[in-house]
Write a structure and sequence with these properties.
Elements lengths: L7 E4 L5 E4 L7 E4 L2 H19 L17
Antiparallel strand pairs: 1-2, 2-3
Length: 69
């Protein structure tokens, strides 16, 4: 069974690409390139699901909002 997860990608101050899976608390990794980070996060997700099972919540979507700041 295929399960789809949102992955957030950010670049840190050293240039590394951080990959975070908001649906799976604590599931994040990094890579030198975006491709490497995505490869690593696929493995991290598989290991997470193997150990902890599927998430109890379902992702509904991602929204962008603006606030004064």
């Amino acid at each position: 069974m295929l399960v789809r997860f949102q992955v957030w990608l950010e670049q840190d101050e050293t240039g590394a690409i951080i990959a975070d899976v908001p649906q799976l608390p604590g599931c994040h990794t990094f890579g030198a390139t975006q491709e490497e980070a995505l490869e690593n996060v696929r493995e991290a997700i598989a290991l997470y699901l193997e150990v902890r099972g599927p998430p109890a919540t379902q992702m509904l979507g991602v929204e962008s909002i603006e606030v004064e700041g």
